[in-house]
Amino acid sequence: MASLYRRRNGIEPPPRWQHPALTSDVPQLRAAAERARQLGEANGWSPSTTRCAIDGLAVLLDGRPGGEPVTLTEIRARTGRHASVPRVAEVLAGLGMLEDDTVPAVRSWIGQRTAELPPGFATAVRDWLLILLDGDARSRPRSATTIYVYCTAVEPLIDRWSPRRGHLREVTADDIRAELGRLRGHQLCTAISAVQSLFRFARKRGVIFANPAQRLTAATPDPSLLPMTEDEIRAVEQAIIHPGQRLIIALAAVHAARWEAIRALTLDDLDLPSRRITLGGHPQRLGDLSHQRDRSDPGEVSSPSAR
């Protein structure tokens, strides 16, 4: 009714309310509030979400010296429960004012696991894992998965060395070979890689005087895939009746195609007249067995993506 009355009488509507931070005398707060408004419009934030984000920014930036970054810990501690921490952090990150001081889960995990190791080994192993995680001038950072795998590989070895060896520098090449002799296949290869990395780091940092793992070689793991017997081949032939199943077997057997590439295969990836196939983005010649399977029933070749 009020808007209808204003229109009939030619009265200008009252100015639309805007957050006071948008006209603040503090330059960094004003810039952050404007940034939040822009992000809200671009990403479809609700007016209340934008308003609460600006409220959180006002709490953090009002009275703060210019150029001083805001830590993620401070955002979580000082902003109200209605202010979205991710939204506030996103605004500050876009302005280059966010400092992520949180400890990654893998870093906390390293501290917990190495604290359980014997004293003569704990510091060296922790420093080694942190260098793997962060990298240095001559090596790139390794993934968290590598950290977990390497640490898990050396822990049992250290547990068996520690009753006789009080420090990493006391471990000999015979000690290493004796423990690695218990392992087989991929476990052995992983343990060799981890031990080589650990002692190489320890030698570089002066923790040990000589590298007892220098002559270790990561032998090829015991083959886990063996040729199929004639009975097994006949059993597979009897089990696969659908032409699509036969094509999958042919692609896997002849082209060593992974399941992702087979699943993504479409009719456009096949060039039967030229006997070419594209698997995983790599064109190659179509083998005789695959060519026969492809020609058997073209309607069965297409994957769900092709349909």
Number of helices: 14
Average pLDDT score: 82
Structural class: mainly alpha
Instruction: Give a count of the beta strands, DSSP E runs of length 2 or more.
Output: 5
Uncertain runs: 297-307
What does this 3D model show about the protein?
This protein is mainly α. It folds into three domains: 2-99, no CATH class; 105-204, no CATH class; 230-300, no CATH class. 54% of the residues lie in helices and 5% in strands. The protein has 14 helices and five strands. The chain has helices at residues 2-9, 27-43, 47-61, 72-78, 85-94, 105-115, 119-134, 144-161, 173-180, 185-204, 230-239, 243-255, 259-263, 288-296, and strands spanning 70-71, 98-99, 270-271, 276-279, 282-285. The strands form two sheets. A three-stranded antiparallel sheet has the order 3-4-5, with no helix packed on it. A two-stranded parallel sheet has the order 1-2. Strand 4 and strand 5 form a beta hairpin. The longest helix is centred in the middle third of the chain and has 20 residues, at 185-204. It is flat and about 95 Å long. The two termini are 56 Å apart.
Report a brief summary of the structure.
The protein has 307 residues and is mostly helical.
Name its key features.
307 residues; mainly alpha; three-stranded antiparallel β-sheet; 14 helices
